[in-house]
């Protein structure tokens, strides 16, 4: 395929970025060859995508360089794609939803995907979540705009079709998170469920004290996002020298904080979230994160688990 063959609102799935450990981590965690998503825009030469600092329109030939682009098209083409493009343009004009770095996608996969983590893996995941928390705090401090959900690239593309109306909705069947649940050992739960169990039921004095003081913002890890992704991949791929461990108090608190911050952005004011905190636990924020898990869409889902999309070919520039 060539760029000129693109139709409006084609779903474009990018192979991993060369030399990027974050791209590699996304592909590893989703067991897929893609790590980024965009939509073809009003002309074949332009794409619209969710990439920091916000939704933006870019030139296809520039963004496709050194990547393999999997072109996915909705099966029925008699429909106008205008409603999908209108939804995308609305996000563009309103400067929302705000774009997180791809480390956010890695963090979401780590929280939502059902797998058992060793102590070493948990320590690295903790640093990743602390880094993401610092990004969200920076956004809150700089923007202070309510109701803007943190959204990754694949969710943006999916949401544009969702917003276009019932005739355009995309279905994810047996997606990345579902496949992980099937492959997990019997009785295993994901890190989010482990964190909810910990923060709601651990009545030890030391943990309750830690929970009550967890609002104090920690300094973000000094490592770059790429370095943290490299450490994660190294740990996940290494032969396991230890058994999976019960979730640490520190990681449970970090997931709770991640939920609070994501919910804060949606509520638009820290004080609103603080009203919902009972004995240090923000139940509504944790439930909000559970809701996000239910609608989570990864790039690999749109390539491998969306029966409404047909692969038309590949583009290599």
Describe this structure as you would to a colleague.
The chain has one domain. The longest helix is centred in the middle third of the chain and has 24 residues, at 119-142. It is built from 14 helices and eight strands. It has helices at residues 21-30, 60-63, 82-93, 102-112, 119-142, 153-163, 176-183, 191-201, 205-212, 225-237, 249-267, 270-274, 283-294, 299-304, and strands spanning 11-15, 34-40, 46-51, 54-59, 68-74, 277-278, 281-282, 309-316. It is an alpha+beta fold. The strands form two sheets. A six-stranded antiparallel sheet has the order 4-3-2-1-5-8. Strands 6-7 form a two-stranded antiparallel sheet.
Précis, in short:
By secondary structure, this protein is α+β, with helices and mostly antiparallel strands. The protein is built from 14 helices and 8 strands.
Q: Main traits of this protein?
A:
two-stranded antiparallel sheet, 6-stranded antiparallel β-sheet, 8 strands, 317 residues, alpha+beta
Number of strands: 8
Q: Give the SSE order as H and E letters.
A: EHEEEHEHHHHHHHHHHEEHHE
The profile of the biggest β sheet is: 6 strands, antiparallel
Q: Total helix count?
A: 14
Ends apart, CA distance between termini? 10 Å
* Global shape: globular
Major sheet: arrangement of strands: 4-3-2-1-5-8
Give the % helix.
Answer: 40-55%
């Amino acid at each position: 395929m060539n760029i000129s063959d693109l139709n409006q609102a084609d779903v474009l799935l990018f192979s991993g970025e060369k030399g990027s450990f974050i791209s590699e981590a996304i592909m590893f965690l989703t067991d897929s060859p893609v790590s980024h998503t965009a939509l073809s825009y009003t002309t074949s030469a332009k794409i619209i995508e969710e990439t920091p600092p916000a939704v933006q329109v870019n030139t296809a030939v520039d963004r496709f360089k050194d990547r393999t682009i999997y072109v996915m098209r909705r099966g029925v083409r008699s429909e106008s794609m205008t409603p999908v493009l209108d939804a995308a343009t609305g996000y563009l004009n309103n400067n929302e939803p705000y774009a997180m770095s791809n480390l956010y996608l890695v963090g979401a996969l780590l929280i939502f995907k059902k797998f058992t983590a060793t102590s070493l893996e948990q320590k690295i995941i903790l640093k990743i979540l602390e880094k993401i928390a610092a990004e969200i705090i920076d956004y809150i401090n700089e923007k202070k705009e309510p109701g803007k959900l943190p959204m990754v690239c694949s969710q943006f593309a999916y949401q544009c079709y969702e917003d276009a109306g019932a005739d355009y909705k995309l279905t994810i069947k047996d997606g990345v998170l579902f496949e992980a649940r099937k492959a997990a050992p019997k009785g295993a739960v994901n890190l989010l469920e482990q964190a909810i169990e910990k923060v709601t039921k651990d009545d030890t004095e030391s943990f309750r004290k830690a929970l009550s003081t967890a609002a104090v913002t920690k300094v973000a890890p000094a490592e770059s996002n790429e370095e943290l992704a490299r450490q994660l991949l190294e740990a996940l791929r290494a032969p396991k020298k230890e058994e999976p461990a019960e979730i640490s108090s520190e990681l449970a608190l970090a997931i709770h904080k991640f939920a609070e911050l994501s919910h804060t952005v949606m509520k638009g004011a820290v004080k609103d979230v603080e009203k919902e905190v009972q004995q240090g636990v923000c139940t509504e924020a944790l439930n909000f994160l559970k809701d996000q898990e239910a609608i989570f869409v990864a790039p690999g889902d749109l390539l491998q688990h969306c029966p409404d999309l047909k692969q038309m070919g590949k583009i290599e520039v």
